[in-house]
Amino acid sequence: MKLRVYNLITISALIVLTTIYGCKKKDTTEISIQGSTTVLPIVQRVAEVYMSKNPDVSLSVSGGGSGVGITALLDGTTDIAMASRQMKDKEKATANKKGMKIKEVEIAMDGIAVIVHPSNSISEMTIDDIKSIYMEGGVSNWSKFGGEDKDIVVVSRDTASGTFEVFEKKVLGGEKVRADALLQASNVAVKNAVAGSEGAIGYMGIGYLGDEVKALLVNGVEPTEANVLSGEYPVARKLYLYIRGDAPDDINAFVNFVLSEDGQRIVREVGYIPLK
Question: Do 252 and 162 share a structural domain?
Answer without folding.
Answer: no
